[in-house]
Amino acid sequence: MATQAADLGPILPAGGTGWTRSPSAYAALRGHREDHPEQQPKHPDPFDVSRSDIYAEDRWQPIFAEMRAKGPMHYIEESPFGPYWAVVQHEAIQHIEALPDVFSSSWEHGGITILDRLEEIEGDRFELPMFIAMDRPEHTGQRRTVAPAFTPKEMKRMDGDIRKRTGDLLDSLPEGEQFDWVEKVSIELTTGMLALLFDFPWEDRDLLTFWSDWAGDTELASVRDLDERRRAMLYEMAGYFQQLWARKSGEEPQPDLISMMIHSPAMNSMSPQEFMGNLILLIVGGNDTTRNTMSGIVHGFDKFPDQRELFETQPDLIPNAVQECIRMQTPLAHMRRTATQDHELFGNQVKAGDKVVLWYLSANRDEQVFDNPDKLDITRDNARRHLAFGYGIHRCVGARLAELQLRILLEEMHSRRMRVKVTGDVERVQANFVHGFRKLETTISRF
């Protein structure tokens, strides 16, 4: 891998010096929308839930509820992402996830998001393979490479460090003074965790959030005017990580993810594009998901004060509260599969090549599985049945780590008798893949 630097663009000095600092992905996309209102995506079908405005405005719930009431899946003939099947019921999603040979995750068929992963820019195919976007047997070998970083033994080893970093950060927050929880807590904790997982230079850890935002926004990736800038950000990311790869390639095996890749036959000969794709997977998967649930917890307790009172008076509910908050937030709204053959599905004829989009966001509000699903209930006895981590062979490899970080955050908040109220602006991510918060202005008091 270290011999392929020329394929990844210019290699700049480590330590941050010389790295491009362009506007954030959010600012770039917002600026494009403002400058080109005529290019706003059109959504003629009222059931086209690929539209990002319904998530930014938090009005997606009744749309999905109506869809679920009418059936497990719906064919959307026209959307900015092409035609697709929208699968909205819990049981239907589990059924499809259990048939990975029929419903492919492979980047060769389009990948795991509603946006086709095979991008073509001015005739140049920009392919980003990643192990979550692979089918067996390639998926199996690469997943096994990184899985040891998330075993129960590793979680126990990391517990003390996560708890100390979480506690130190909570102790640094101002009491009685409004601040942005997303910026001060959610981003800081998850970015720090990623830096430790990659053994990434601590002083440059904010780059991980920056790259995650550029890589994880499906709508941004569909705007051709931003292709060049987005690709530059991804090559910058790959170039930086390639330096880490080169430095670690001569060292003894370590428990960080880069070292695991280097010493794995399944991953140590990756192409530059495959290297980049797996970095995106690990960064977006480890950053956006946990950080948005950390924000969702605070917002959920504020919206349902009776549940905050239960948290404050019954700390033994914290493990279950973690599962319920993940269910309510569902930080990744969907995953996509592609039919490899004609297949009858719940009375519908799915054709080979059809795009099948699994809306986890909807499954986690399915009335057939969860009573009163739009209410946060930290005593819910089946909260763990949520599909926020997926299901089957592609279930999130880092689920244990996400649960650990969230549990420790709640435990450390409780031990400090910390009550967090939403007292200012709430700004949500305008995207159909990552589901979360851009800003959450809060004020701390004590209970």
Automatic annotation (TrEMBL):
Region (Disordered), start-end ranges: 1-51
Q: Which PROSITE patterns match?
A: CYTOCHROME_P450 (PS00086)
The answer to whether UniProt assigns keyword Metal-binding to this entry is yes
A Pfam family that the UniProt record links to this protein: p450
Q: Which GO terms describe its molecular function?
A: heme binding; iron ion binding; linalool 8-monooxygenase activity
Q: Which UniProt keywords apply?
A: Heme, Iron, Metal-binding, Monooxygenase, Oxidoreductase
Write down the superkingdom of origin.
Answer: Bacteria
Q: What is its EC number?
A: 1.14.14.84
Basic and acidic residues bias locations: 31-51
What family name appears in the similarity comment?
Belongs to the cytochrome P450 family.
PANTHER family recorded for this chain?
Answer: CYTOCHROME P450 YJIB-RELATED, P450, PUTATIVE (EUROFUNG)-RELATED
According to its UniProt entry, what is the function of this protein? Cytochromes P450 are a group of heme-thiolate monooxygenases. They oxidize a variety of structurally unrelated compounds, including steroids, fatty acids, and xenobiotics.
Q: What is this protein called?
A: Linalool 8-monooxygenase
Q: Which gene encodes it?
A: linC
